[in-house]
Amino acid sequence: MLTNYYFLPTMVGSLPHKDVKKAFKVVKDTLKEAPAFPQLPNRDPKEGMILQTAIGLPGLKVQDGKCILDIESADMNELQDFITRIKNDDPSKSAIPEDAAAGLYEMIRNGTDNPLFIKGQLCGPITLAANIYDPEGNNLLGDPEILTLITKHVRLKAMWMDQLLRNYGQQTLICFDEPSFTEIEKVEYGLSYDHVISILRDVFSAVSGNSAFHCCADINWPVVMEAAPNIISFDAVKYGQRMFLTPLAVSTYLELGGSIAWGIVPTGESQLNSLTVPQLAFQYNALMLEMINHGIDSKELYSNSLITPECGLACLDEATAEKALQITVELSNTLRSLLEE
């Protein structure tokens, strides 16, 4: 696994562009060390995070923009084939089609300039189950059997994506996006932390390269750290202090080889237009000092930190999204220069 990132710049994944060639060029030209395939939900609804990953589930239908899973109406041969592939860990039929991930295929066709790693992203199993519904309108997070099927579905998707990117000679990073992770706290779903950790470990273990977990909400990070993704990615603009509220968990996570992607570059248009890179560097260094004051080893903290925007960029206009990526790279360069002084 890669370590010693020293403020490596990358992104969460989504961009507002509709032109896939332009979007990929932006990523390739800007994030030279760690490009992510551009996820383009404004280009096609199938590139939305939920549907993009849900494609291929037996019995899946889309009604009024909502994913409905009706296992009982699924083709029995398709369902049996799906279950067999789960048992055999066989991702051969788990590809995301090109019309649902145009940026991924554009990246594969055009290549990258020998980066440290190439990043892909999927919707994580908790968020996917929380946003797919049965025919009665209930989400599937509280159905243990269907949650298991969804978890295995995401596992196979991750294996497929990891293998696809490895076939092109790249070190891989597969990130599981979990914006609905706060749902695990709801009593009605009956999810224990042990169960959630088991689910996360199942999908992380599908990745032969580096696994990552991203959430831009205020969640119980020690639970995620115990599941041991190689990288945790979070919104440090709003929740930066969360990381030094549990210093023992963070220290243990870093000591065991984990890394943190700090979403310190804001995604609000007004913030992007008013903040300067030196101001962002000051804010980030103040956060790092707090971490160190709470007992986090400075060497491990700096060497295992990445820099990203706080979340995806699809909600911005193209020029502002591109500015956010440029600021991310400039902030990375500034922090690396300060570290050398």
The largest sheet, given as strand count, sense and whether it forms a barrel, is: 7 strands, parallel
* CATH domain topology: TIM Barrel
Q: How many domain modules?
A: 1
In the CATH hierarchy, the architecture is Alpha-Beta Barrel
Structural class: alpha/beta
Distance between the termini: 28 Å
- Uncertain segments of ≥5 residues (pLDDT<50)? none
Order of strands, widest sheet? 1-10-9-8-7-6-4
Beta-strand content bin: 5-15%
Shape: globular
- What is the element string, with H for helices and E for strands? EHHEEHHEHEHEHEHEHHHEHHHEH
CATH top level class name: Alpha Beta
Helix content: 40-55%
Our count of helices gives 15
The chain-level mean pLDDT equals 94
Q: Your description of this structure?
A:
- Helix content is 45%, strand content 13%.
- It has 341 residues and is an alpha/beta fold.
- It has a single domain, classed as TIM Barrel (Alpha-Beta Barrel).
- The strands form 2 sheets. The chain has a 7-stranded parallel β-sheet. Strands 2-3-5 form a 3-stranded mixed β-sheet.
- A hairpin with a 2-residue loop joins β2 and β3.
- α1 packs across α4 and α6 packs parallel to α7.
- The chain starts with 7 loop residues before the first strand and ends with a helix.
